């Protein structure tokens, strides 16, 4: 729920509660006042006949007629017979009892058999009594009208407060919406926009200032990261090219020496070690050059590639070269991606090389390819030892070894996973690592799908 909606609801609720509290107080006060006025009228009529019972009836009747009081006067004799002398707008149809008479001689009472009336009695001589009763229906009606009006006024006040609050906060809320939109754009990577102008209350201006400062700092860090990345890429490229020349010379001389028959066995072992290390360094330099090329050029001359055919062919080749493994191939046909064919093939080869290098010769392998919506999902899984806990899902970095126990004898340089991740990124996709159901590592490549070539 938006902040503006929450604030509006809060203000409407508070206004309604205040209106309800004030209205309730007004209803209670008005009720007490009206009942007190009715009681005063009844007491005034009773007082007019108190102390002189012989004229009490005539005095009470004169006062009711003179002041136009809306009261009922009933005479009740000693046998309980009732004679109605004066009738109010709401007549008393129920018959009062002698018990009602005796109970109300000293004060105003109410009784279940005389519902809707308040009454008092006084002796008028000869064993008879005068009952003075006033109907409460008019009071109840006025109170009901007051309650309805109070509710309507409260609702109107709450509605008016909501409208006023929206109008009052409109500028601030509009600025907040613009700042939220700007923050979303920044989160998506669009940091080139200018921060919306600071208008509105002091809090909004402070928020805009803090957001502008944050974005400026973020832009500076992004630029610094870009410069650092470009410098690193240039260094890798230059270093790789500089290393390739002496390596080529060393490799040539090593091959020349290998053609002769060295007499010393130790010399032969040294020569073999030199050739092995030269081959390893040559592979490392090739990987560095390839990595620099992928990172430097993000837009290639792309083509529509039949990923189904490429993945299935490499999987079959892997199964042929590793007959002792159980290789399961589940490649859906007709799955295409847009990219550089050499890069896509290098990605798949690196995935299988990673399996061959870091698993035993009998560990099972599963290769699956399917299209899910606008993406294709290529997954290469193995039944090897996998990676240490806590390293799954981590984006591979250059020269990163997920298992510190691996030595150089494994042949890995720490660039294979990074190359696969960078190729996937250059194609607009992503590489994720997870625990395979086979027990080892699952490499999952999620790439944008492409339409088949026409």
Short recap of the structure:
Helix content is 56%, strand content 16%.
Features:
four-stranded antiparallel beta sheet; Heat Shock Protein 90; rod-shaped; alpha+beta; 9 helices; Beta-Lactamase; Helix Hairpins; single chain; 454 residues
Structural overview:
The protein is α+β, with helices and mostly antiparallel strands and 454 residues long. α6 (265-296) runs parallel beside α9 (416-426), α7 runs parallel beside α8 and α8 (341-358) packs antiparallel against α9 (416-426). It has three domains: 3-141, Beta-Lactamase; 224-294, Signal transduction histidine kinase, dimerisation/phosphotransfer (DHp) domain (Helix Hairpins); 299-450, Histidine kinase-like ATPase, C-terminal domain (Heat Shock Protein 90, 2-Layer Sandwich). It is rod-shaped and about 160 Å long. The protein is 56% helix and 16% strand. Mean pLDDT is 81; it is low at 404-412. The relative contact order is 0.06.
